[in-house]
């Protein structure tokens, strides 16, 4: 029985340490079926999302959802800590509970207490090891606890830096595409302003953003659960808007070069597809954000500001092909993370976030 317990304790410790290594140190996605961290996030997010859906009011719901990212990160560290404490306690019990205690013979409760004080390097001394193996386990656990603390210290700043880099450009999208962002609005606003020459550098910047989004969210998936600080914005809606914009330009608009749009579309679709696979989210092949009527209205909207989008059966077929290559993945991410996908076009003008924030009227003395 004690031999089986020893194997179980070693398995628990190895599982936790390997999961911490894959989560923090290994800069790539892991395709293995079972992962402690992935199981933790999927189970806790499922319950958190179910509660959020019962909350009335978009503002209240969004504030509740915003808590999950940070609190789940702390919870994962607690799971790691508890797993190691329990695993070393099992090893102490398998070694015969060779501990000196104030009450006499040691029990598993004493093993657990000893493991906890050792892991957190408290070292109270009221319970201490009295055999070589017990001493070895105590030293090993103390070193493991210190190592996990070092990992935690390095992990938190990296996660928040990734979140901050993602949000800087996402916040800037408000003035270009509105809130929530709309890909066609970028073309409409640039057309109205006579600044269509800015479209290519805009798409180039967002090509880089999509690449960084893909790499950071694969390396640190918890960042995906961090919500934007502004209402009607999310990384999912930004990714979808950039895909929509790149699609419209790639299909054809007279006078606008399509190569940069093609390059931006490629990395944006790569991000959408890979992230659904990372989070094990099945694509929604029934999703359709653009009806025929909406497409005609969108083209008419662009034509009113002097743009000439392609109108032909070939253009319609290419548009449909491109849309179907990413819509199922974007829709799946939006539904799973409760980050609504943006519209292809706006039927009515809306105020951007920067316009709707409180402003004091100027006064003159």
Describe the structure.
- This protein has about 375 residues and is an all-alpha fold.
- The protein has 2 domains: about 1-25 and about 35-155, Helix Hairpins, CATH 1.10.287; about 160-345, no CATH class.
- About 65% of the residues lie in helices and about 0% in strands.
- A two-stranded antiparallel ribbon has the order 1-2.
- Helix 1 (about 1-25) packs across helix 3 (about 60-95).
- It is elongated.
- The model is unreliable at about 360-365 (pLDDT under 50).
Task: Give a quick rundown of the structure.
This protein is mainly alpha-helical. Helix content is 67%, strand content 1%.
Secondary structure blueprint with pairings:
Elements: H1 2-25, H2 36-52, H3 58-94, E1 99-100, H4 108-119, E2 128-129, H5 132-177, H6 183-193, H7 199-219, H8 235-251, H9 259-278, H10 292-303, H11 313-337, H12 353-356
Antiparallel strand pairs: 1-2
Helix pairs in contact: 1-3, 1-5, 2-3, 3-4, 3-5, 4-5, 6-8, 7-9, 8-9, 8-11, 9-11
What is the total domain count? 2
Amino-to-carboxy terminus distance:
86 Å
Strand pairing plus helix content: what structural class?
mainly alpha
Radius of gyration, taken over Cα atoms and rounded to an integer in Å: 27 Å
Helices and strands, in order, run as HHHEHEHHHHHHHH
If you average the pLDDT, what whole number results? 89
